[in-house]
């Protein structure tokens, strides 16, 4: 089962790592995903554009993919964080073509989440991942999923 989430916040935890916190829309469960500084900057950019309604004078990174999809008569429908394997999260960006057929592209959550914001589509996390994060959080007072000194990465 997929659970809808939103970006609750981001915070820089080292010179090269940023923690992105995703929280379920209809609850309080969270997962923490470590992303790079560059991806965090793009996330902040996309959130600012959406929140302030300020269009960019030039296409951004995710605008490029959206423009290619539109030209190919496709549209993004959702992003799903599908699994946690070897302390790494995996995600898919789902698309629908004009004829109704669907396909998905493998993506890192650190790219898929800002893309979802740019495309104005929902982000989901598989229930099993939230349960796994919840179990580990209850064992770890700091919360999150250990990953060689940090949390799971994207």
Description:
- It is a single chain.
- With 154 residues, this protein is of the alpha+beta class.
- It is built from 4 helices and 7 strands.
- The chain has a single domain (2-139), classed as Roll (Bifunctional nuclease domain), CATH 3.10.690.10.
- A 7-stranded mixed β-sheet has the order 3-2-1-7-4-5-6.
- A hairpin with a 5-residue loop joins β2 (17-24) and β3.
- α1 runs parallel beside α3 (109-119).
- The two termini are 21 Å apart.
Summarize this structure as a short list of keywords or feature phrases.
154 residues; alpha+beta; 33% helix; 38% strand
- DSSP helical segment count: 4
Output mean pLDDT: 85
Backbone structural class: alpha+beta
CATH topology: Bifunctional nuclease domain
- The whole-angstrom Rg is 16 Å
Q: State the distance separating the first and last CA atoms.
A: 21 Å
Strand order of the largest sheet: 3-2-1-7-4-5-6
Helix content, binned percent: 25-40%
Major β-sheet annotation: 7 strands, mixed
Secondary-structure element series: EEEHHEEEHEH
Quick overview of this protein structure:
The protein is of the alpha+beta class and 154 residues long.
